[in-house]
Amino acid sequence: MIRHTFLAGLGIATLLLSGGRPARALPPANGDEDHFEAKIRPVLMRTCFKCHGGDKTSGGLRVDSRESLVKGGKKGPAIVPGNAEAGLLLQAIRYTDEDFRMPPKERLAGNVVEDFARWIKAGAPWPKSAAAPAAGARHWAFQLPRTIDPATVAGTAPHPVDRLVQAAQAPLGLHPVGPASKRALIRRATFDLTGLPPSPERVEAFVADARPDAYERLIEELLSSPRYGERWGRHWLDVARYADTAGDDSDYPIPQARFYRDWVVDAFNQDKPYDEFLTEQIAGDLLAKSGPPELYAGRVIATGFIAQAKRYGTHKHEDMHLIIEDTISTLGQAVLGLTLRCARCHDHKYDPITSEDYYALYGFFQSVVYPHAGSEEDHKPSEFIPLAAPAELKTQTDAYEAEHGERRMFLEAELKKIDESESGKALKEVKAALEAIKKEPKSDDRDKRRKEANDKRLVLEKEVTEKSKDLRDELDRILRESPLGKTPLAYAIKEGKPVDAKLQVGGEPNRSGAVVRRGVPKFLNPKGTLEIPPEVSGRLELARWITSLENPLTARVMVNRIWQHHFGKGLVYTASNFGLQGEAPTHPELLDYLAGRFVQSGWSVKAMHRLIMLSETYRLSSDDLPANSAKDAGNRYYWRADRLRMDAEELRDSILQLGGTLKLERPGAHPFPPADKWSYSAHRQFSAIYPSENRSIYLMVQRLHPHPYLSLFNGADAKLTTDVRDASTVASQALFMANGDLVHQQAAAFAKRLIEGWTAPDERVRHAYLEAYGRAPTAAEVERSLGYVARYTKALESEKAAPEKRELEAWSSFARVVFASNEFYHVD
């Protein structure tokens, strides 16, 4: 088959490398301030503050502000900005004077001294974080949303969203363009709500529908489609950093992760109120204990939001502080629009979040048990949660135990005898010795002893296995067929021992500070603490605070995300950072109005879609007005619709739909290898790609080995929460659309549908345009398309291609050009 597409020859559209959603540029980081935060502040806080901070001013010196260091203490200035040698601080930490050494008991590392020298020489830049609490009290996002009455805003637009948008346009002399055509509008709305192109039949029916409420009917139809939850569930999975693997050094699989993914899809389809949606993800297991049995499984599964925290290292729950850090960071960004992670090592450098605030949140998640997916040193998954109510499971288990318990105990006793036999004890000893050897520094002698111990382990394991195999197989069968063994498990969390966390000085878990009572950031809740019963973790109380009307952030953050996915950009561009370093809203009154309506609607996401999509602002065309562009080139004030590029899932799903191979049913489990075969390591990580013709939300997603297609087209990074996807435009994307296997396979399938469905070549072209672009081709486009197919057929003849293959290959090439065009790849 010819692997090129004669793009220039057809000319029906430009190659997908041009146009589309631009990447959002953020202000560059300040390198000197970054150096201070990474290298200087942690040392001051960890080493110097205990004698020169807070209520302590040893020698008259404080180190908690730049001004204090410049002023110095009794002996003089600690630093002279710009002159590293002039102040006393470097002299003290260099240990050049025996009578003047700081810190007095232990010298700082040489690289730390040089870090301070560089910082002072650069002018001792000090971010204004000390003033952040005062500034934060006035920051727009930390105040409760105002009650906005659009009727009091000047203007004539009847729809409240239009009135607030046009009020912001008026001072700039901006005027909205005209409305989008019905063809453009149905394509836009269908992609927005379902992530799929509308069928030609649905487009034609909408265009012909003269009823005044035709558009409202369309919106309701799309919101009731099962495809809606798949589209909007994917948006939430981006911020929830969803993956089917754990992200540890070996990236162990999580077959049960799909239950959480499916729960999210169902929650959007059911229009689960957003406050319930969040509460169940934070504390669903607690609600499940006292709720209706039919809700038990779903509420447990919902806590996959927390369980999805990235894993680290080679041991079970290694670096637990990092797992909890990921949980807190994701919760902060996804739900509150705050960068809480910054407060792990020291007070937040911009927002009024203290380290005490961070560790007050830390205690909630230190009080739970996270599931273990498996790791290099402990392959077996554990701590998963059965998806059956405990009382029901106990009744079934008791009945099964009455029948099989005696045999089970006999088998366990026999296996214990083998474990305690001479060879069993020897195996335990050699395993312990092997672990000890692994921790020794590398050397030839260590490697030799490690090999000898490993060889001995293999011999002993074979001996023990031969004695116990039949007994273990029978025991495994009994356990597997028990109610507990047959009950599906969820990758979810459960209550552990309730505990208040100790502050980790400098973010180091082995440097404990004072105990911090569980609670929430004080600048958002003056008390800081919550009323938590002593026997629980407090996650339910945390969730209720997050979704309370006293919280100024939760509703704003979510309505901003909804707006972002409809318009390509949020009213707040930094969708996961509403703090002092985030961008201010372009339309603050509109943001507050939407937040208020969101809560009034009962936290209904679908109600927000209706409110936004029924506005004239949403229904504008993407046409340009030069006079407007001269004043607002970035369309920050929404005087037209932005032309948006499909994301990775939309593009793949659309190609499969045109090929006629897209499977709309929900798939089952991924074909992971059996868990008893898992032996992945940092040097032999789990890695797989499972072919599928289901929607892209159901593709198996790895943390350490991103899916090659999704990563090529800027899919979400599963290692961290993703609020706005990158929008790179690279040659490899165009090459994929020209020569990728997926494109070739689906183009051939699309061509076959055209050939079998329509005899007349011009009808094939017409239907291809209707399916791909939602419009009929012009006469000139039909002529160019047919000319292209004719030239391609002639080229195949000259290459001696088999006559029976020429028609399919020529039309397949035409289909590839359709796929690779800007008009297919973008939505107006």
SSE order and pairing:
Layout: H1 7-10, H2 31-52, H3 66-71, H4 88-94, H5 110-121, H6 132-136, H7 160-169, H8 182-194, H9 200-208, H10 214-223, H11 226-239, H12 257-269, H13 274-290, H14 293-302, H15 304-307, H16 320-336, H17 355-366, E1 368-369, E2 385-386, H18 390-419, H19 422-438, H20 444-481, H21 483-486, E3 489-490, E4 494-495, E5 501-504, E6 512-516, H22 539-546, H23 554-567, H24 588-600, H25 605-613, H26 626-631, E7 644-645, H27 648-659, H28 708-712, H29 731-739, H30 741-757, H31 761-773, H32 779-798, H33 803-819, H34 822-825, E8 826-827
Antiparallel strand pairs: 1-4, 2-3, 5-6, 7-8
Helix pairs in contact: 2-5, 8-9, 8-10, 11-12, 13-14, 13-22, 16-17, 18-20, 19-20, 23-24, 23-25, 27-30, 30-31, 30-33, 31-32, 32-33
Please provide a written account of the structure:
The chain has 828 residues and is mainly α. The longest helix has 38 residues, at 444-481. The model is unreliable at 1-30 and 129-137 (pLDDT under 50).
